[in-house]
Amino acid sequence: MPLKDTLPKNWPPNLPYLTTPSYSRSLIPTNLSALRTKPQDIADIPPNTPRGPCNLVKITPIATPTHPANGQSGLFATKDLKPGTFILRYIGEVHASSDLDPDPHSESNYDLSLEREHGIGIDADKKGNEARFINDYRGVAERPNAEFKEVWDEKRKERGMGVWVLPEGKSGKGKGIRKGEEILVSYGRGFWGARKNTEGARDRDRCR
């Protein structure tokens, strides 16, 4: 784990900070083979990307009552970011789908799907990097200004997930991100649908 003075500002003191992915014991050889096979049309992580705290972003506590993440934190740009810019990698525990009951990743709010065919995901719930603080745009802005997109790490020869500023050509939505603006993505309908179903089940349980 990095020394305290190399951690990003406002990083939670009890949460391990990762500069490279960690790997779950749930990964089997076929998972690892898929993880280390480069797909066509996948972008490389820019070679000059630093390994450690990202100077393009800062973790900032949110104290706006109308913000859905009020009382928590968000990720904000420290400089103007042009459309299509690679911001940072989403780092956490790389894992495979689990048959355990309960699945240790099933209710995580930080679990991203990386490779669907082999059920590989990245969960930054218990350890990760600054990217875990990126919020959904709903209730904050009219549309997202960034997106999750798969990347290839040429140094490690493996697939991963990156955060990119939306490009200009994406339905004209890519306007860039200004210094001081919150970096916002769309978590997707699947994320909110799953949580709606979970909340509904909990409400039903309370009525029993």
UniProtKB/TrEMBL annotation:
Pfam families: SET. Residues 55-188 form the SET domain. Gene3D superfamilies: SET domain. InterPro entries: SET_dom (IPR001214), SET_dom_sf (IPR046341). SUPFAM superfamilies: SET domain. Signal peptide: none annotated. This is SET domain-containing protein. It comes from Phialocephala subalpina.
